[in-house]
Amino acid sequence: MLEKLDFCTRFKKSMLNRIIKIAIAAAILAWAIQQFSIGNIGNGIFITLLTAIPILLIFRHEFILASFWYLRKQDFVKANGFLDRITKPDQLIKRQQAY
User: Fold this and answer.
1) pTM of the model
2) Alpha carbon distance 80, 76 (integer Å)
3) pLDDT tens across 8-20, in order?
4) Which of 38, 40, 56, 75 is the 20 to 30 Å CA partner of 91?
5) Residue-wise pLDDT tens digits, 20-58
6) Interacting residues of 68 by C-beta distance below 8 A, sequence separation 6+
7) Is the CB of residue 52 less than 8 Å from the CB of residue 84?
8) Burial class of residue 70 in the structure, from the number of CB atoms within 10 Å of its CB (0-12 exposed, 13-18 middle, 19+ buried)
9) Contact assessment for residue 43 and residue 17, using Cβ atoms and an 8 Å cutoff
10) Secondary structure element (H or E) that encloses residue 20, with its range
């Protein structure tokens, strides 16, 4: 029973993070639509592009993105440091667990 409770709490925490990121993306998108409706086309386009940031973070873990950046710069020590900061790799998306 304790294992089931532990799984439920881990699942709720990981889903809560995703829900928060989705809510932020929806709020930014609503702000972009509001800017379009006012007539500020330039602001609307820029804010729509800003919406991509939380959507990207829903599907990619921040530390994995940072480690990819340092791998590209051939700095393996810092890349390994960012991968070591991931405390619960079982909560990553299935494709990211290989890293």
Assistant:
1) 0.55
2) 6
3) 555 555 567 778 8
4) 75
5) 888 888 999 999 999 999 999 999 999 999 988 888 777
6) 79
7) no
8) middle
9) no
10) helix 2-38
